[in-house]
Amino acid sequence: MNRFGMNRRGWTLPVCLFLACLNASIGLAELAQPAAMPESDGNAQPPNFVFLLVDDLGWGDFGCYGARFNETPHIDALAGQGMTFQNAYAACAVCSPSRAAILSGCYPARLHLTDWIAGHNHPHAKLSVPDWNMRIDHERILLPEALKESGYTTAFFGKWHLMPIGQDDFDQHYPTDHGFDLNVGGREWGQPKGPGRYFSPFDVPNLDDGEPGEFLTDKLTDAAVEFLEATPQSQPFLLYFSYYTLHGPIMSPPELVAKYKAKAKTFENTNNEHLDPARAGMVERLDESVGRLMQTLDTLGIADNTVIVLTGDNGGNFQGTSGGLRDFKGFSHEGGTREPLVVKWPGVTKAGTSCDEPVIGTDFYPTMLDIANLAPRPDQHQDGLSIVPLLKGDATTLSRDALYWHYPHYHRTAPYGAIRQGDWKLIEFFEDGRLELFDLSKDPSETTNLAQTYPERAERLLQQMVAWRETTGAQMMSDNPDYRPEEAGTVTRQNRKKK
């Protein structure tokens, strides 16, 4: 048992077989003496990437972002070694569109993938939802595909949730169909649904069930560590770890539930944090996972040439996870989309720094290409910007006018669009055209609607957002002929039929 309290088991068979093939292919490639890979900022070896995406991560869930009930020493240490962003955003308030934006570098509106798969059904709502997309088109070259074309090994671990449930091409959209060499755990699920949920048995691809009582976050971390340990140091890689945690069902090892129950009894909740012992245990297990990965990179001697990115796909799933911001997952306000973002780029990004410039999920694709000294692909990552100037300390702002959100669906929020330009944020609600305007520099919790106070500013931002929707081909809603006000709030799970 190691210092993280986990027994190390043998490799999962799929990971073992994949890495055996990888080593063999590298040996053949060395014999063939291919052209050298691009060098990055003086490094003979191209940089490795560890991208960590946490599900339902609230802006206030980590100690480095103000949490006091949750304990995150390893993540806090990572933040101390890199840069934290104070205005980092997910591209949507729910998961599937946000995940697609990261991989494609495109806004969900441009992809027409604008809701979690398979979405909700409101048959009697005032507006009808457009016929949106439940897949990323294969014609798009995604981030892992771009890196793979440049010699990277690409491995995916955890939650995928980008498959068109119930449609003909369902089995053509696994991670391995979109540029990943290896998939451990990714399938159509948006949350663990195996017999044990977060506990064994798991019922996810290419991951053994281990021993009774083993925890899913730990088992996926085992597989990721095995990948790191067996990948030759001459082989650059993208390890894309998309955690199922912190999504429900909220489950945690019993000893951690007991620990945080005891802590809650004496905890002075001055910041209105979410005091759920089981969820706090999930955060701790996440933190231990991050710590194990960092320790493995150090042990292997590759930490200095590995860029680590840690962020989330949408806000936390409960009030009190947003660090004082308004609302949480599924809402139009800041708590639904503002995310922690920590980037460690050894030897380049100054340790312990912070950045206030707004950035968004579409930016990771061009940023990682830039870090790897690879040519940008503006025809692919159409809405992203490289944040390398921020990471290098060469600039404090980006040459971007505004950020946008487009959600023509019903969830916890009514359908809406939003724009952030500088410190100003405008929300348009599609049902009635109602506008909300906030000055985030003075009112980050969005308590005071200034749309009537500054009508000209509100109208100017609205027209800019309308023009952006036209440019991106955003799908709009239409009047619903089956609208029944008395039943409009009814929510059911939507499993769409084949087209």
Automatic annotation (TrEMBL):
Record region (Disordered): 473-499
InterPro entries found in the cross-reference section: Alkaline_phosphatase_core_sf (IPR017850), Sulfatase (IPR050738), Sulfatase_N (IPR000917)
UniProt GO MF annotations: arylsulfatase activity; metal ion binding
Cofactor entry: Ca(2+)
Pfam families membership: Sulfatase
Domain of life (superkingdom): Bacteria
Signal peptide coordinates: 1-29
Domain (Sulfatase N-terminal) ranges: 47-373
Annotated keywords: Calcium, Hydrolase, Metal-binding, Signal
Family: Belongs to the sulfatase family.
Protein name in the entry: Arylsulfatase A-like enzyme
Biological classification of the source: Bacteria, Pseudomonadati, Planctomycetota, Planctomycetia, Pirellulales
